[in-house]
Amino acid sequence: MDRKAFRELIERFWEIAGGVSVRTKILGIVLGGTLLFGLTTVLQVRYALHQVLVARTQDWGIAMASDLAARSADLVLINDLLGLHRLLQDAILHNSELRYLFVLSPQGEVLAHTFGTSPEFPAGLIEANPLPPGAPYRLQPLRTPEGIIWDIAVPIFRGRAGVLRLGLRDTAVRTAVNTVTAWLMLTTMVVSALSIGIALVLTHLIVRPIRSLVEMTERVARRDFTARATVWAHDEIGALAQAFNTMVEELAQQEQTRAFYLRRIIEAQEEERRRIARELHDETGQALASLWVGLRNLEQTLDPDTLRTRLEDLYHLVDQTLNRVRRLAFELRPSVLDDLGLVAALERYIRDYRERFGIEVEMQIVGLDERRIPPTIETAVYRIVQEALTNAAKHARCQRISVLLQASPRLLSVIVEDDGCGFDVEQALQAGRESRLGLYGMRERAQLVGGTLTIESTPGQGTTIYLRVPLESA
Ligand SMILES: Nc1ncnc2c1ncn2[C@@H]1O[C@H](COP(=O)(O)OP(=O)(O)O)[C@@H](O)[C@H]1O
Ligand SMILES: [Mg+2]
């Protein structure tokens, strides 16, 4: 068999073995093991037992032949053929393993035998086992239609009175070996049946928790986070069930958080729209209405001086409205961020901020001139800095803020530091889960672009926000 065919065979085996259930696999292992052990034991015992029994039977045969030879010596010497015949008949009658006995004279004639009267003395038997002169005995297995017969030749009176020949059947040996084999086979069958029973119970113990785990996994896949696996035992599968439960709890927690913030984000979005709607309706709409009324009044004004003052007022109103609309647009999404990039947008925002809140903001940019970073990162950084500065204005009661943007080829790091009152970060984040989005939103935005956000603050000692965003050096 070449290597390719061998590999195909192995693959085929794995395919079949992989396709059957765990229960079948374990049953296969147990049954295979028991049968293999049983069969090798049967073969070994058969072989060893056969060897021992054959040796013992042959020893017994030789002893028997020597004994008979000694007893027949006198009979041969006094030529008592009847006595000789009777001796052989007697021996064969009492020993079922003996197939035949006969005595040859020194000249090789048959003096007495046990083959009876009518059938011929088997042809060729005399020559089948020639005894060499001086040998104590000679053993020769003969293949006959009745099976193996061991022919044993022993000298009578050291050969001077001829030779005694004895035929020994192997049936006793065969029967004993076969009986033992049958018993061993039966034992193997019984042990196999018992092992299958035990294996069935054990596989049930193994398969049941796995099935339950599969069922629970399917429930979790359908977003049912109440699913919990039962920990049946403190083994590897038990550990798996435990790990599964921990995972599901974690997932449920995350799902809850996700749902909460999704709701908060949608609410915040609606809040923002409400604000814009109010602004457009109350401010811009009112202004345009006043403009309309003013223009209508202009129609009836004939006096050039009054006309001029009224026109002046109207210009002023248009100016104000334009400014408001611009600011609204800028707050929503500064176009400078798209057109000129992060640095320009932040500079513009900080300029406005200084005017609005009267807080001194110092901005330092390192390694970012001329360089555009991916728009998603720009937006994220812009919004995070915006929120940090808004928080500082809203909560910190600070005088100075410093903003540092530092870019290396692979990392953008931003630090916003105020000298305000500071706060307990853990507590604020904890409380923020229920109500506020600011700190959480900063962190989320940082994570969305693969970055990390750290807030360091101690009450009374100001606040520092560190943002690190990896830059793909494209
Ligand atoms: N720079 C800061 N200085 C002092 N306190 C701050 C600062 N930033 C945040 N905080 C505190 O953390 C809380 C949560 O902030 P945030 O999540 O942005 O919510 P919000 O700004 O809507 O109050 C604030 O209410 C404030 O108490
Ligand atoms: Mg805030």
From TrEMBL:
Residues 204-256 form the HAMP domain. Residues 251-286 form a coiled coil. Its EC number is 2.7.13.3. Its main location: membrane. PROSITE patterns: HAMP, HIS_KIN. GO terms for molecular function: ATP binding; phosphorelay sensor kinase activity; protein dimerization activity. InterPro entries: HAMP_dom, HATPase_C_sf, HATPase_dom, His_kinase_dom, Sensor_HK_TwoCompSys, Sig_transdc_His_kin_STH3221, Sig_transdc_His_kin_sub3_dim/P. The chain crosses the membrane at residues 26-49, 183-207. It is found in: Membrane. Keywords: ATP-binding, Coiled coil, Kinase, Membrane, Nucleotide-binding, Phosphoprotein, Transferase, Transmembrane, Transmembrane helix, Two-component regulatory system. CDD domains: HAMP, HATPase_UhpB-NarQ-NarX-like. The keyword Manganese does not apply. Pfam families: HAMP, HATPase_c, HisKA_3. It catalyses: ATP + protein L-histidine = ADP + protein N-phospho-L-histidine. GO terms for cellular component: membrane. It is an enzyme of class 2 (transferase). Residues 279-473 form the Histidine kinase domain. The keyword Plastid does not apply. PANTHER family: NITRATE/NITRITE SENSOR PROTEIN NARX-RELATED, NITRATE_NITRITE SENSOR PROTEIN NARQ. This is histidine kinase. It comes from Candidatus Thermoflexus japonica. The gene is degS_3.
